[in-house]
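Data availability (excerpt). All sequences and predicted token strings are deposited with the supplementary files. A representative entry, Protein kinase domain-containing protein, is shown inline so that the format can be inspected without opening the archive.
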Amino acid sequence: MILHLLLILILILTSTSPSSSQNLSPSQSKTLLRLQRLLEYPSSLSSFSSNTPFCYLPPSPSLSISCSSSLLTSLSITGDKPPSLTLSPTFSSDSLFTTLSRLPSLTSLSLVSLGLWGPLPSKLHRLSNLKSLNLTSNHFYGSIPPELSTMTNLQALILRGNSLNGTVPDLRPLSSITDLDLSGNLLGPDFPSLGKTLVSLVLARNHFHSPIPPWLQSLDKLQKLDVSSNRIVGNIPPFLFSLSSIQYLDLSGNGLTGAFPASVACADELGYVDVSNNLLTGGLPLCLRSNSSKIFVLNSGNCFIGGDPKYQHSGSYCNQGALAAVLPPVEKKSGSKSQLGLILGIVGGIIGGAVVVSLLLFVALRRMKQETFAYDGKLLKKSDPGLPSIQVAPRTPAETRHMSQAVRIGTIGLTPYRVFSLEELEEATNDFDPEHLIEEGPQGKFYKGWHRDGSTIMVRCIKLKQKYSTQSLLQFTETISKLRHRHLVSILGHCVVSGQDNANTTIFLVMEFVSNGTLRSHLTEWRKREMLKWPQRVAAAIGVARGIQFLHTVAVPGIVGNNLAIENILLDETLTAKINNYNLPVLSKNKNNKIGSESPFSTCEGSEFGSVEHGEKEDVYQLGLILLEIITGKPTQSRSELDTLKLQLQKSLAENTAKLKAMTDPTIRGTFAYDSLRTAVEVTLNCLSNEPKERPSIDDVLWNLQYSVQVQDGWASSENLSTQS
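Structure token line:
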């Protein structure tokens, strides 16, 4: 009897042993092994083999697998790809989702930070049993496929931190969805159509431009609404604050206008409201005032009456911003105008603007229809050879002010800013030992140091030549604390040491230390460093453009006229480009020295640039010089060399593809798509226009460089497919 029981026990233990892969069906085991190859062997999947007991793997932050009846029901993979890196050109998003469709029992799929890129294929809807889909922090681009709206079992859809663009398809058929996060993309301009079951809706950091729709008041289950850092216009609907379940409301960084109605009521559960950095006037409603509510409220950067003047603009700021949204730019003319003339001008501007916009849309649509052609499934702009043309879309003043919110996405993941003590810096630099001195010049002394946490830092020592008020110093340090971005050598903190009455003040800026060489060294020192191929070069140029965009919008006025020589572009270990030696805002010399109405700083002491706009165009010109060397591999030592090289590029564009390819750096020939190269050359020539007004804005440069990348990605995919066939 005992022997019989022992045999039964052995059989039970053997049948439940995880030592074999029979816990998952053979076909699904093969699918996971294929995923391992498609995802290019991320560390979390590196140990996969045909003997892996997939259903018995212990869950971890990077990998989690669940099974039921020998079928995979949940798969979560989190990689460690830096935001600037993607999988190789051989990766295919279509192949990925074709493979995933072989797992029809999946109810939860999470693929995060894996460097995935390409369009989201329509076959995504084959995963019809999915309840949760999370593709956060990848590089998917193009539109969201309309077929996604047929996935009626979806309860959570998270596409945060990609490059998806265009109008969001109608998602009302998703009758079970409670969580929708489309933040950090390029979606817009219309507010998406959504169902009534939502509990959390996050659309932050996109290009939504329409007013807040009235149908949102039907979302009686909505607890969180975040539409920050878009371009949403119009008044704030009062019903938002009284939605029956609302707890969190973020409307910051938009173009919302007008005053709150006096009758605004707040829901009992509402605990967080952010309406900062809009164009709001009047005063906060009673339920949002800090002295009468438990709600945490942020409201700076508007024109509220009675608010702290340090954090609120004057009424003219919001009025001009509101008009800028509907009025076309108007040239200033000398002489006074009558009130009647002003009114007629405004009315005429509105009517004329509407007519012009209508005509432009009509012409643009006809031109788009006539001058586009298909390339690897994408729609590309067609231009005549030899005629560099760049689409320039001037920003309105309101858009310029609010752009700063959108570009701050590049600050995510950086070490928090802090105030250092002098003792910490003395310890880090061995009492500012001359052996640690890296550089000394007009911008101060630069020391290399080692912080207590083991990180390498750079300490910049700036001695002020005159006495400044405590308030000015505080405003200065507040501004420099914002100079943190993935594509800047960022400021990590500061230390201010002042003598009596703030005389003999020294400011120490603690900055990150980047030690992987300059962009030029990676273009020329092929014996020492990794030579950059075409995709890496364009990625570096995009990084520089994003850094410039951030500097131009992080403060009012922007930080312009920066030293953007290619020797001042550094690359870190992941080949991320970082701008070094950019300008700092300078303390005003006295309270009457104002650059603009809101800022006590000038952009550069002793600057040769007469205006912010001129300085912006000078930065674009210097970016053109960097692009020129990235493309040709040839530094220009004189104006005559520059003019000769520009002329050669213009002629090669007008003649044939072979001529233009022959102009490129020999080390990258054969690694680029011609249309990707042509777009970059056209951008470069426009940046190098002799007339500043003819140079594009940094936003347009960035748009076209990103377009060049998409063309390159499509070409690389098609090349790979043709090689395999």
